[in-house]
UniProtKB/TrEMBL annotation:
InterPro entries: Cupin_2, RmlC-like_jellyroll, RmlC_Cupin_sf
Matching SUPFAM superfamilies: RmlC-like cupins (SSF51182)
Organism lineage: Bacteria, Bacillati, Actinomycetota, Actinomycetes, Micrococcales
Domain Cupin type-2: 40-108
Domain of life according to the entry: Bacteria
Record-linked Pfam families: Cupin_2
Xref: Gene3D superfamilies: Jelly Rolls
Name of the molecule in the record: Cupin domain-containing protein
């Protein structure tokens, strides 16, 4: 992991929980897990860190507004409205908003309850 990435901390990030679904009883073997939907807003110059993985927490992201730069594997990629990316056990990354307007994403993932 690059030293630059190791030092990244969150700033300018607002997370709003939109919904959860208890997966116990919905899908066999999913006791103790929930499907979670959140709206994440990253202010201009904001960072969603630190570097984190998605082991045991798969999901997907969809950008509603602004541009989010996803940093992973020593590279960065910008995503704008109408696109997104999957997050699986191989995802290790951090996000930032290099733009001048708030960036808004919807994140849906499976997490342990509590």
């Amino acid at each position: 992991m690059a030293e630059e990435q190791a030092a990244v901390e969150s700033k300018g990030v607002t997370v709003e929980l939109l919904a959860t679904v208890d997966l116990s009883g919905e899908i066999e073997g999913m006791e103790g897990y929930q499907l979670r939907t959140r709206k994440v807003t990253i202010a201009p110059g904001g960072v969603f860190g630190p570097v984190h993985d998605h082991v045991g927490r798969p999901g997907s992201v969809f950008i509603l507004a602004g541009t989010i730069t996803d940093h992973r594997d020593g590279t960065s990629k910008e995503y704008g409205p109408g696109v997104g990316w999957p997050e699986d056990r191989n995802t290790v990354h951090w996000l930032e908003n290099r733009g001048t307007v708030p960036a808004v994403e919807v994140s849906v993932d499976i997490v342990r309850k509590g």
